[in-house]
Amino acid sequence: MATTEGQELAAWARMLADSTRATVCLALIDGRAWTATELAQLAKVSRPTISEHLNVLVDGGLLTEVRQGRHRYVRLAGPETAELLEELAALAPRSTEVATSLAAASKRDAFARARTCYDHFAGKLGVALTDTMTERGLLDWSEGVAITSKGLRWLDELGIVVDSHRGRPAVRSCLDVTERRPHLAGAVGAALCRHALGHGWVTRIPGGRALRVSGAVAELGLPDGTVRELRSRV
Amino acid sequence: MATTEGQELAAWARMLADSTRATVCLALIDGRAWTATELAQLAKVSRPTISEHLNVLVDGGLLTEVRQGRHRYVRLAGPETAELLEELAALAPRSTEVATSLAAASKRDAFARARTCYDHFAGKLGVALTDTMTERGLLDWSEGVAITSKGLRWLDELGIVVDSHRGRPAVRSCLDVTERRPHLAGAVGAALCRHALGHGWVTRIPGGRALRVSGAVAELGLPDGTVRELRSRV
DNA sequence: GGGACGCTTCGGCTGGGGCCGAACTGTGGG
DNA sequence: CCCACAGTTCGGCCCCAGCCGAAGCGTCCC
């Protein structure tokens, strides 16, 4: 007998139904490739254990792996996967955190201010950049979202190369979890993020997806006030 | 120690990680309230078993229940839940169905043509209705989606009452799983669906979410050609 | 070649989750 | 008042998934 729709959904959900695997997947939303040992440390389990978990996730199509020498690198299978995980993580929170430490609060602040969502910008930074690009006529939202010829010229002037392989759409809208408004995703979103990271306009804050924003981020055309706000309080 | 984000996500996913529970949730996407016994029959498990599963889902916030006399009615907690399930079910399909029976094919056809997505229309019908409303200036997509004053007047003329309680947005865009284009959701989408069902313009095909479309659906302003297409092949 | 290192396989332990039948509770109807 | 019926609780069964330590495999580097 054919597998029913319910069985398929259950099989899929089962991949995330273990806290070790869920932790791994959430960590991978940063879009980078992690080694098995790194993930074992993160999830606080032994290497044999993480090895099995990664097998499950790769076999299930949630992750892809690249073997390089004696290393096993895994990453999320694609942007759609990351977006779905973001949504799930946002919808799951029945955590009624009452007393929060100062450290946790400032961490959450940094997360809300600027972070990566898989391979593009999110948080206040992501939304502000999207807004600015729209105001400057670089994006057109009349029918979904599209990049204008002016937008393409702008990318060119910045020296940003967009590789839109495998039919990935150039631009795509992605709902921001903290801002509840759309930010820019797609190949262009990824290219902008890669460019800014490569030039040190933003840098990753270790241990999470949060970003530290430097003044040079103004190169992306953001208003001075916005840049100042994004940089305040470290 | 506080529960980590990974544990929360895992706890949430665990609700769907059982094929019986997953089957139940998918059945409930039709937006109706089902009794425990009905669901037990559907999922082919005993009544004690379904009772426990429903406890899990209600406690987890995925379902809400109403007790009426000796009956226990459950339904999905809300439209967002339904939409998330739709997305998950659409992303999960690693089913490589090769040989499909004629019955299954015609069933899938009916499903793609017209169905409910929780409490609003989906499939070709949902997308066509959304397009028509947009062309006639009843919806405005310049910034997200909104209903125009002309749209409100149209609803009034049809005698459709929109109850937008608990701050549910009047209109909302929901990605159609089969058409891969947005269709109308939100309180207005629900009201249109309820109205059409109530007047017999569409009727449910038993055993699923698919709808049978009558010629009277033209009352919603759909072009003749579209109506004919939606009605063809039963 | 040999040792360090990243990862995997294997065996065995353990807990928890899903399932049912039987018995129980509570509601509704004649 | 008694029976039919919806749903629940209880006890017990079984299976599987997650975990680890020990041992094995393959790669890199000196």
TrEMBL record, chains A, B:
Protein name listed in UniProt: DNA-binding transcriptional ArsR family regulator
UniProt keyword annotations, A-Z: DNA-binding
Gene3D superfamilies in the cross-refs: Winged helix-like DNA-binding domain superfamily/Winged helix DNA-binding domain
Any GO MF annotation of the entry: lead ion binding
UniProt domain HTH arsR-type: residue ranges: 1-96
InterPro entries: ArsR-like_HTH, HTH_ArsR_DNA-bd_dom, HTH_Metal-responsive_Reg, WH-like_DNA-bd_sf, WH_DNA-bd_sf
This protein's record includes keyword DNA-binding: yes
GO term, biological process aspect, one: response to cadmium ion
